[in-house]
Amino acid sequence: MAYDEALAQRIRDLLAGEPGVTEKAMFGGLAFLVDGRMAVAATGDQGVMIHVEEAMARELCAREGIAPMEMRGRPMREWVRSEDVGADGHLLEEMVWMGVGWARAQPPR
């Protein structure tokens, strides 16, 4: 699955000037790492996934349009995805900063 380049650019724009951000192609998407930790990724057509604490992931999944991330049929407890954040700039921004917040809260590598 190819990632959505327009969405990736919107994420870049949100993260502009944020220290410690790098990009890496992963899982057919484009991951944005913060201090070496994967925080958010642009996936297929207007899709995004983020890394958050497990309790926050459960809370987010109660919202319409957000679901647990699965890899090879197995749920990833600290990852959530939204398949269409394109029309909702607020949701994209919220999800990006949640992922960044998770990454910044982790101990240094």
From TrEMBL:
Name of the protein described by the UniProt record: TfoX N-terminal domain-containing protein
Superkingdom per UniProt: Bacteria
Domain TfoX N-terminal, residue spans: 13-80
